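Entry: MoaA/NifB/PqqE/SkfB family radical SAM enzyme
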Amino acid sequence: MVDETPPGRIRIWYVSGQRLCNFRCAYCVSVNDYAKSNIADWSDEDRSRFEKVVDWIADRPFRVGVRLATLGEPFASRPFLSKAAGLSTRPNIDFVELLTNGSLLKRRLEQLDREGDIRKISLWVTYHPTEIPLARFIANARFAQERYGCFVVVNGLLFPDNEQQVVDLGRAAEDAGLRFNLDLGYDPLTPHGVHTELGAMVPVLREQAENGIDRAIRLGAHPELLDLNMAAMRDLRGQMCSAGHDYFYIGIRGDVYRCSRYQALDKDRIGNVLDEGFELRPAGEPWTACGAGFGCGNKEDFLHLRRRRPTAGPPPPSLGWVERDASAAAGRARRGGVPGALTHAAPAGPSTEETH
């Protein structure tokens, strides 16, 4: 029986050790010991862990929405898709969100439809302009949304030299009827210890000609959530957060933390889902003080800070998407906002194990 009572609905961000990717993006955040590969997919140990962690999630007695992330491209790995499909069939699973470059959607979505409940599949589709033509990228994302009914978000990354590509992507997404999100591009080589130095971590913030925050907002980033992102990276002292109550992070080896920032700091590890008898026990209080100090750059984490103003209606089937206030969007449109920029969410940053 599935527990429907609060905090009976839990969101989990799980990063697996799947590494194979068909792209070669220079700014990929999958680096160091768990860098993506254009040749290798899994180690036997990582694949075994992945299968066990997914089975553990599937067996929870409460409702779960999961962002099932990888180090590479999930649609390049049929074993990964098979487990994701199986997870989507479980009655306690609200949604399974996959982070993808979108290049293989037309070829591989059929597997998810055949083996799983594709109505529960959400896709966070990030555009990498050096690797795929825009027209093909948009066509693939639209195919997923229209042919299979997937919840699709088209995601753009803002760097100092790609403003026109961001504008083109936003317009194309709007023309195709796709949700569009704008993220700040991060420097994958920035160590966690300097996350307060935002110019070191976020290249657009190093610019002198125009303030990087102003530029991001001009191109459609959500002002309130962008402010939340910057504040979470600078100083978390005294901030209340629901992580550990209704949201958890699971790393490659199965270790559980309240969020990815705690994982990066190896702070207050809750346990490991692969340990016999491990039970996830959410904090009794819905809000607890964050002890990370600073450096919270992942949207999956900082969207659980109490200072974020909640949106009306049920939560979306995504750990990254936030619906934009309709009246604010309409006002922006009347002021001549960037096409496709009316429903952007806040930028996300890398954890030590994140991809895309």
